[in-house]
C-alpha cells in the first residue's frame, strides 16, 4: 500500500462512506466548516435544521429506521443545544454519532473561543463521550463510536473533534486503525436456555414482553415461540412491529397505562421480559400490574439493566435476538403441547372493550374529539405508513388506537416523557423513508418547541406531514391540576393558527374546526405533494394514559 497524506476531515468522510452513511443533520458553525466542506464535496447530503436538538432528533429517527448510526454535527455552542436530543436518543436506545467541533486543541484549557466542557456535558446521556487530540487516532475513535452505538443496548455516542484535528494532514501509515468484524453478540448457554424452557413448561399463563432492548429479535423467531406455546405477547418502543399487532397472539403496547388491553398481564403466572426493564410501567414487578405470585424471567444484553431489577426468578445476560432464536430452536426439538391459557380470554375482552370505547367517543355536535380525528385518519391510511406519536392527549389517543404492523414504523415518547421531538423526528423519518407516508401526531404544546422545523422540511423538500391536535391546554398536566387541586396553573394555552406558520414558510397549511370537515380536508392534506401541517381544534379530553394517571395517582 502506498503512503497517502490526507486531512483529518477526509479520513472522517472516508470512514462514514465505508459504513454507507451518506446523510448529516446539522446546524453550520465555525468549528465544523472545514469538515462540512469536505463532506459536501464528496456528495454527502446535508439536512440543515433550525435548532441542534432538532438535528439530533432527525438523526435519531434516521438511525433507528436505517439500523445504522445517524450523524449529527455542530459547533461548540450548538453542542449545548444538542443535549436534549442526545437525552432522547439515549432513552430510546437509538444509534447516533454526534460530532462537535471545537477550538484548536493547542489552546483548550486557556480560555479558547467558545470553550465549554463538551465531553462532560454529553457523558451522562451517551454510551461514550470523548475528544480526539491526536489526528492519527481518528479512525480508531470513529470505529469505537460506531461499534458502541450499535452493540448491546444501542445508543448515542459523542466525539469532539477540534478544528486543528480536522484540518491537520496525516500519513495513512501512521493512522491507528481497528479492523472489526460484525457487531458481536452474546449467546446464552444451552443450560440457561433450557432452564427458561422449564419455567415455561411449568406455567399455565405465560406472557412475553418485548422491550426496547429487543431490536434484534427476528419476527419468525418470536412468532415461532408464541405460536408453538399459544401464549400472548406485548411489546414497546423499538420492538413495536417486530411481531405485528394483527397477529392473533399480539396484544400491542406493553405500557398498560396507555394500553388498557395490557392490564391482563396481572393474571400471568410467568412473565418473560425480553429486553424490557422491570420499571415503573410494570410497577417494578409488583401488584396491581404483576401479581406477587408471578414468576419473572428477564433477558437483557446490559448487566446494569439486570442489576436494577429487585425481583426476578431468573435473569440472563445475553443478546435478546440470539436468545429468542435459541429458545425457538429448542422448542422445535421438543414435543411441546400448546397451552390453553385463560389469560388470552382476558386479553381479548380487554381489547374489545377498549376498542369499543375508542370507537364511540365523539365530540359534541360539530366539536371535534381527538378520536374523531383518529377514526377518520384510519380510513385514509394503509400499511405503508410511518406513524409518530408525540406526548399529548391527542397523540396518546392515537397511540392507543393505531396498530403497529412493521418494525421501525411506529414511534412514541417512551418512558422519559420528553416532548419537542415529534416534528423533527418525522422529518428525519421521512429522509430515511422517501417513498412512504410519514405522519406526526402532536399537540399544540409539544409542537411549539420545534415547529419551525417545518421550514427545514420546505427548504430540503422533505414531504413530512404534521397533524396538531389543538386543545389549548397542556393536557396531561392540566387534567391532573383540575382533578387534584381544582386550580390549573400555567397549563392554559391560547388557540393559535399554527397552519399559518406552515404557510408562511411555503408549506401546506389548513385548519379544521368542524367535525364535518375532517374527511375532505384530511384527504386533501395527505394527497398534497409536499410538507404540510394541519391544525385541528379539539376538545380537551384525558387520553387513556392521562385517565390512568388520574385513576391511580394520589396526593
Question: How would you portray this structure in words?
Answer:
Helix 20 (518-527) links the parallel strand 19 (508-512) and strand 20 (532-537). It is built from 21 helices and 20 strands. Helix 3 (52-66) packs across helix 15 (422-432), helix 9 (219-229) packs across helix 11 and helix 13 (370-380) crosses helix 20. The radius of gyration is 24 Å and the shape is globular. It folds into three domains: 5-174, Rossmann fold, CATH 3.40.50; 190-347, Rossmann fold (3-Layer(aba) Sandwich); 362-552, 3-Layer(aba) Sandwich (Rossmann fold), CATH 3.40.50. The chain has a six-stranded parallel beta sheet with strand order 3-2-4-5-7-6, sandwiched between helices. Strands 11-10-9-12-13-14 form a six-stranded parallel beta sheet, sandwiched between helices. It has a six-stranded parallel beta sheet with strand order 16-15-17-18-20-19, with helices on both faces. Helices cover 38% and strands 17% of the residues. The longest helix has 18 residues, at 343-360. It has 555 residues and is of the alpha/beta class. The relative contact order is 0.10.
Short description:
The chain is α/β, with parallel strands linked by helices.
Summed up, the domain count is 3
How many H/I helices? 21
Q: Summarize the biggest pleated sheet.
A: 6 strands, parallel
The CATH homologous superfamily of the largest domain is named: Thiamin diphosphate (ThDP)-binding fold, Pyr/PP domains
Output the strand order for the largest sheet.
3-2-4-5-7-6
Gyration radius, in Å: 24 Å
Strand content: 15-25%
Number of strands: 20
Helix/strand-derived class? Answer: alpha/beta
Classified by CATH, the class of the largest domain is Alpha Beta
Question: Separation of termini?
Answer: 71 Å
Percentage of residues in helical conformation: 25-40%
- Would you tell me which CATH topology of the largest domain applies? Rossmann fold
Amino acid at each position: 500500500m502506498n503512503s497517502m497524506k490526507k486531512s483529518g476531515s477526509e479520513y472522517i468522510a472516508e470512514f462514514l462512506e465505508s459504513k454507507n452513511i451518506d446523510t448529516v443533520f446539522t446546524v453550520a458553525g465555525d468549528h465544523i466548516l472545514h469538515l462540512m466542506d469536505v463532506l459536501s464535496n464528496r456528495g454527502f447530503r446535508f439536512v440543515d435544521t433550525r435548532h441542534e436538538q432538532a438535528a439530533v432528533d432527525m438523526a435519531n429517527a434516521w438511525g433507528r429506521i436505517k439500523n445504522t448510526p445517524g450523524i449529527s454535527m455542530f459547533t461548540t455552542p450548538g453542542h449545548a443545544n444538542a443535549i436534549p436530543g442526545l437525552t432522547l436518543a439515549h432513552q430510546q436506545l437509538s444509534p447516533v454519532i454526534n460530532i462537535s467541533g471545537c477550538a484548536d486543541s493547542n489552546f483548550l484549557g486557556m480560555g479558547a473561543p467558545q470553550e465549554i466542557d463538551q465531553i462532560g456535558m454529553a457523558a451522562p446521556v451517551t454510551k461514550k463521550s470523548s475528544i480526539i487530540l491526536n489526528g492519527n487516532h481518528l479512525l480508531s475513535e470513529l470505529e469505537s463510536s460506531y461499534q458502541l452505538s450499535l452493540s448491546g443496548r444501542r445508543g448515542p455516542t459523542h466525539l469532539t473533534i477540534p478544528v486543528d484535528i480536522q484540518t491537520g494532514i496525516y500519513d495513512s501509515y501512521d493512522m491507528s486503525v481497528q479492523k472489526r468484524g460484525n457487531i458481536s453478540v452474546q449467546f446464552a448457554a444451552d443450560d440457561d436456555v433450557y432452564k427458561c424452557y422449564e419455567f415455561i413448561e411449568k406455567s399455565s399463563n405465560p406472557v412475553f414482553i418485548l422491550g426496547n432492548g429487543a431490536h434484534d429479535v427476528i419476527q419468525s423467531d418470536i412468532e415461532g415461540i408464541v405460536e408453538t406455546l399459544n401464549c400472548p405477547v406485548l411489546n414497546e418502543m423499538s420492538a413495536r412491529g417486530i411481531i405485528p399487532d394483527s397477529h392473533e397472539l399480539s396484544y400491542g403496547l406493553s405500557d398498560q397505562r396507555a394500553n388498557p388491553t395490557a392490564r391482563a398481564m396481572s393474571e400471568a403466572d410467568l412473565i418473560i421480559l425480553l429486553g424490557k426493564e422491570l420499571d415503573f410501567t410494570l410497577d417494578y414487578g409488583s401488584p396491581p400490574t404483576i401479581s406477587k405470585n408471578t414468576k419473572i424471567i428477564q433477558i437483557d444484553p446490559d448487566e446494569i439493566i439486570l442489576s436494577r431489577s429487585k425481583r426476578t426468578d431468573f435473569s440472563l445476560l445475553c443478546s435478546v435476538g440470539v436468545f429468542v432464536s435459541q429458545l425457538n430452536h429448542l422448542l422445535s426439538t421438543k414435543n411441546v403441547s400448546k397451552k390453553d391459557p385463560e389469560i388470552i380470554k382476558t386479553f381479548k375482552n380487554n381489547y374489545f372493550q377498549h376498542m369499543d370505547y375508542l370507537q364511540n367517543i365523539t365530540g359534541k355536535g360539530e366539536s371535534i374529539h381527538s378520536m374523531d380525528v383518529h377514526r377518520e385518519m384510519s380510513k385514509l391510511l394503509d400499511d405503508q405508513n410511518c406513524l409518530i406519536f408525540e406526548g399529548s392527549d391527542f397523540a396518546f389517543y392515537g397511540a392507543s388506537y393505531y396498530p403497529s404492523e412493521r418494525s421501525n414504523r411506529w414511534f412514541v415518547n417512551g418512558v422519559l416523557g420528553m416532548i419537542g421531538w415529534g416534528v423533527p423526528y418525522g422529518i428525519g423519518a421521512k429522509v430515511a423513508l422517501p417513498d412512504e407516508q410519514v405522519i406526526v401526531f402532536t399537540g399544540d404544546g409539544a409542537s411549539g418547541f420545534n415547529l419551525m422545523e417545518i421550514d427545514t422540511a420546505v427548504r430540503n423538500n422533505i414531504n413530512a406531514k404534521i397533524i396538531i391536535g389543538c386543545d389549548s391546554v397542556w393536557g396531561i398536566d392540566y387534567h391532573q391540576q383540575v382533578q387534584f387541586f381544582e386550580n390549573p396553573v400555567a397549563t392554559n394555552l391560547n388557540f393559535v393558527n399554527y397552519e399559518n406558520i406552515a404557510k408562511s414558510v411555503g408549506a401546506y397549511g389548513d385548519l379544521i374546526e368542524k367535525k364535518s370537515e375532517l374527511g375532505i380536508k384530511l384527504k386533501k392534506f395527505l394527497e398534497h405533494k409536499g410538507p404540510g401541517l394541519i391544525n385541528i381544534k379539539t376538545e380537551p379530553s384525558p387520553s387513556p394514559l392521562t385517565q390512568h394517571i388520574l385513576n391511580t395517582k394520589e396526593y
